[in-house]
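Q: I'm writing up a methods section and want to include an example of the input and output format. Could you take the sequence below and give the corresponding predicted C-alpha cells, formatted cleanly so I can copy it straight into the document?
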Amino acid sequence: MQRSHRVGQRAAKFELFKDTAGKFRFHLKAANGEIIAASQGYTSKAAAQNGIASIKDNAASAPTEDLTY
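A: Here is the clean output for your methods example:
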C-alpha cells in the first residue's frame, strides 16, 4: 500500500473513466481535487491502465524541458 508523504491530506489519485464517445480516459487529480493531468482517449481499458502505469513508472525521473524562451 502506498502512503502520501503529506500528513493529514489525501494523496493525488488517478480516475479512470469512459467518455461519451466510448473511449477510456484518465485524469490525475491533486489532493485538492484539481485535475493536473488528462489523458488521450484509449480504445481499451487495458490501454488506459497501461498509460497510468507508464506515468507511475516514469514521471519521477522525467526531466523538465523549459520551452518558455
